[in-house]
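Action item from last meeting closed. Structure (289 res):
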């Protein structure tokens, strides 16, 4: 498991003076931050192909453009109108982003509890609802004196609406796939996130789920079009990237932490999965900083 945050996306990392210099519209009060209609490439909160751990809850509404990202090992494509809600400790890797991406982004703070990630592909009507609520938060946040309770309840309303729509979408998806299959798939993903560095066999996950290896393989293939070991390897690569980005451990130490017999075995695995060596990955990420 990851023992320390790497590339944390936290309030402490936000350069508000840079926002001022670039005339970005933003509001901040205690642990709540709201950024309006910002062009992603002018303020790249996430650098492509680097892995981040989200420190506080985030809410992002796409006003324009499209992007692809991995969130807790699951790949998502988002576009204009999409809403992304991230719980604390979410692991995010941005894979691709269009030049014209503009967003409304919020750091929700500790008072607004977010316990699960939500990715919504909104209808035009639902997008308009979220947009109106966001503008209302913006207006209320600028009232003097600051209307803390009003802003707090509006943020809760946005989160509650997102969770309700997510629940409806999942119920609709469950009608096309057996609920048992989806439950097993989600539980499998949770187990992989916890144990991929130590356990890399189909048998281990099948036993943990109290099913046969053959049935587990069939379920995962049907649910995701990927094999059990592809999921395990993805988790292992993500863990490796976090450790490599920290740049605090030698290769043999990373290999040991990830349960490889040697640094050469780890290097061979990493290159097979990513196309580059661990050292090349470190050099690439270092250049982007």
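Sequence:
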């Amino acid at each position: 498991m990851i023992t320390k945050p790497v590339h944390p996306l936290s309030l402490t990392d936000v350069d508000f003076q840079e926002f001022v210099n670039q005339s970005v519209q933003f509001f901040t009060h205690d642990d709540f931050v709201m950024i309006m209609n910002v062009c992603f490439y002018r303020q790249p909160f996430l650098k492509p192909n680097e892995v981040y751990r989200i420190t506080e809850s985030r809410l992002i509404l796409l006003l324009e453009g499209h992007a692809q990202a991995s969130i807790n090992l699951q790949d998502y494509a988002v576009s204009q109108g999409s809403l992304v809600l991230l719980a604390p400790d979410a692991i995010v890797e941005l894979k691709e982003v269009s030049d014209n991406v503009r967003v409304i982004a919020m750091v929700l703070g500790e008072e607004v509890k977010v316990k699960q990630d939500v990715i919504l592909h909104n209808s035009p009507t639902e997008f308009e609802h979220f947009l109106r609520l966001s503008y209302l938060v913006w207006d209320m946040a600028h009232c003097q004196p600051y209307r803390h309770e009003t802003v707090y309840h509006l943020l809760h309303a946005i989160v509650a609406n997102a969770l309700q729509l997510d629940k409806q979408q999942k119920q609709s998806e469950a009608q096309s796939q057996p609920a048992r299959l989806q439950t097993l798939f989600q539980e499998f993903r949770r187990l992989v996130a916890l144990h991929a560095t130590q356990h890399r066999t189909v048998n281990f996950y099948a036993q943990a789920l109290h099913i046969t290896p053959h049935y587990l393989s069939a379920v995962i293939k049907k649910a995701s079009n990927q094999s059990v070991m592809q999921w395990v390897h993805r988790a292992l690569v993500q863990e490796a990237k976090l450790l490599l980005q920290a740049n605090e451990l030698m290769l043999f130490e990373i290999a040991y932490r990830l349960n490889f017999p040697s640094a050469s075995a780890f290097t061979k695995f990493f290159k097979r999965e990513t196309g580059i060596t661990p050292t090349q990955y470190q050099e690439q990420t270092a250049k982007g900083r």
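Note appended to the action item: The chain has two domains: 8-174, 179-287.
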